[in-house]
Design goal:
Shape: globular
Largest sheet: 6 strands, mixed
Number of strands: 6
Number of helices: 2
Oligomer: single chain
Length: about 90
């Protein structure tokens, strides 16, 4: 899924993730934040976090859903647990 801000300067992409054996992780998404075409950060999030972020930005900040990445899984060696262990308390 991809959501874009009104002016188009901020884009959030959520890709399903898979391992090197092409096994798709059912509750793991690669979240990529782009600002004016430059990647600002990448992280692994759960479907619950993805859904909450999308609903919040669409309802409260006038973002629009602009693409669907459901059939474009990305390779990831990170698990959600590993990603959460690297976050500081302010990022959770």
């Amino acid at each position: 899924m991809q959501i874009t801000s009104q002016g188009g300067s901020v884009v959030l992409d959520y890709y399903p993730t898979k391992n090197w054996n092409n096994d798709i992780f059912p509750d793991s998404y690669l979240r990529i934040l782009t600002f004016r075409g430059a990647t600002m950060n990448k992280r692994i999030v759960t479907s619950k976090i993805r859904d909450m972020e999308v609903i919040d930005r669409v309802d409260n900040y006038d973002y629009v859903v602009t693409d669907n990445h459901k059939n474009r899984p990305q390779y990831s060696s990170l698990s959600i647990e590993t990603a959460l262990n690297k976050l500081s308390l302010s990022e959770v």
